[in-house]
């Protein structure tokens, strides 16, 4: 499904806020098979860590869905740039999925979106 620019956008980047102070915000994201997150916007650079293997579909407004397969322990750091990042993720796998998101509050380290840095525990896109 293609997202439209008129779809409502949340600032909740996870399913449950676990911790917040003036420097970081930590979220839990749990998705059952077939379940999607809210369409959400990342204002801050963030790190996420998958605590289960997963097959995820990610869709940005106006874009086509992209499916990727990640192993347990996959960690990625994302620089969102001035514009931030808006997307929705959906668990297209057969098992429940969970990951933890740590937002680094404050301005992005770059005005531009940079390619993500990760630890390499990713399978080829499906």
Keywords:
Jelly Rolls; 126 residues; four-stranded antiparallel beta sheet; mainly beta
Which strands sit side by side, in order, in the main sheet? 1-2-9-4-7-10
- What count of helical segments does DSSP give? 0
User: What profile does the largest beta sheet have?
Assistant: 6 strands, antiparallel
Low-confidence stretches: none
What's the shape?
Answer: globular
Number of strands: 10
Structural class by SSE content: mainly beta
Notes on the structure:
- By secondary structure, the protein is mainly β.
- The chain has one domain: Jelly Rolls (Sandwich), CATH 2.60.120.
- It is 0% helix and 45% strand.
- It contains no helices and ten strands.
- The protein has strands at residues 16-20, 24-31, 40-42, 46-50, 54-59, 66-70, 75-79, 85-91, 97-104, 114-118.
- The strands form two sheets. Strands 1-2-9-4-7-10 form a six-stranded antiparallel β-sheet, with no helix packed on it. A four-stranded antiparallel β-sheet has the order 3-8-5-6, with no helix packed on it.
- The chain is globular, with a radius of gyration of 14 Å.
């Amino acid at each position: 499904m293609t997202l439209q620019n008129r779809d409502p956008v949340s600032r909740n980047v996870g399913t449950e806020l676990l911790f917040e102070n003036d420097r970081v915000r930590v979220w839990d994201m749990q998705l059952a098979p077939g379940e999607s997150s809210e369409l959400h916007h990342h204002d801050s650079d963030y790190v996420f860590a998958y605590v289960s293997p997963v097959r995820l579909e990610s869709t940005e407004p106006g874009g086509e869905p992209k499916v990727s397969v990640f192993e347990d322990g996959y960690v990625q750091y994302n620089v969102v740039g001035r514009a931030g990042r808006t997307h929705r993720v959906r668990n297209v796998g057969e098992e429940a999925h969970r990951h933890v998101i740590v937002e680094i509050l404050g301005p992005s380290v770059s005005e531009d979106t940079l390619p993500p840095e990760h630890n390499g525990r990713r399978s080829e896109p499906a």
